[in-house]
Amino acid sequence: IGKKLNKGDKLGVWAQVEKNLLLGLEEAIAASLSTPINKGQMIQKLSLKIEIAKRLIRLTYEIKILEDVIYLRLAEKLEEISKMAAGWKKYINQKEPAIS
User: What does the pLDDT look like over 61-94, one tens digit per residue?
Assistant: First the structure.
């Protein structure tokens, strides 16, 4: 998508979208390889990066950087990723032993 954007948009808001998506990927990989104690915090960071990316992509659509079809496809994919992260967090929270 970035290749089709003009230079200002590509280096501006779209660079932030890509940055947050890559950081989210990094958090997902780190969480998958971490100990159960640390997974919850990492998944929370992943959820934050996903939400930021969702808002930035909506912004790019609203200021007419992205076309409707591209925006809808990205929004759908990010919503699916967001649900997966929420499910993962719920699963981790159920597995954590209660501290007395």
Answer: 898 888 899 899 999 999 999 999 999 989 888 8
CB distance 66 to 1 below 8 Å = yes
> Which structure tokens are listed for 14?
């779209």
The amino acid sitting at 47 is S
**Sign for the pseudo-dihedral over CA of 56, 59, 63, 65:** positive
Predicted model pTM: 0.78
Instruction: Please give the Cα distance from 79 to 51 (Å, whole number).
Output: 9
**Residue 63 in tokens:** 């200021």
Write out the two tokens for 22: 């890559």
Rg (CA), the chain: 16
Taking the C-alpha atoms of residue 59 and residue 14, their distance in angstroms, rounded to an integer, is 10
Q: Where are the alpha helices (DSSP H) in the chain?
A: 7-11, 13-33, 36-62, 68-95
